[in-house]
Amino acid sequence: MFERFTRDARAVVRGAVEHAERTGARSVDAGHLLLALLDRDAGRAASALAALGLDGRREEVRRALDETRRHAGLSRADTDALAGLGIDVPDLVARVERDHGVGALSGDRGGEGGRGAGRRGLDRDAKDTLEKALRLAVARRDGHIGDEHILLALSIRPGVPGEVLADHGVTHASLMRVLHGDGQAQAG
């Protein structure tokens, strides 16, 4: 599959591996793919994110991903829903981190039994995202898999990266309008 990736898409995957290594994650996940997409200044995905107003809010998205990771993968919507049931997720996270260290709920801590400094593999979510990118490219009869296909896959698949994008006004529909429509789409 990787032979069909454009240079930009390959750079996204390499960037995701670098993000995982920097944070000590055991494997590369879909969130790392999104972070790598946010790092890029070139490519169709970067252009689409800029058109939807996300280029100036990259750090905001990074913080949202970090917060979600610290909250054991619970999105803002999940946290709000639990708050409605009287469960204070930030308080729970603070108590767990006080007893077990910052990031204890993130699942990223390599430590014992982890891969350590070795090469990071893709987790199931990242593999599924890249497979979805392939399917999107095939459905459009594109002869390649570009960084825009990875971004579209993240926006359409269930999970934290798609929810974080949607929370910041980047949806699958708005991306499709920008990438394949008139380019005048508004976030939302």
TrEMBL record:
Keyword Cytoplasm included in the entry's annotation: no
Family matches, as InterPro entries: Clp_N_dom_sf, Clp_R_N
Domain Clp R: 2-188
Alphabetized GO MF terms: peptidase activity
Region (Disordered): 103-124
Record key words, sorted: Hydrolase, Protease, Repeat
UniProt entry tagged with the keyword Protease: yes
A Pfam cross-reference name: Clp_N
Domain of life assignment: Bacteria
One BP term from GO: proteolysis
Record-given protein name: Clp protease N-terminal domain-containing protein
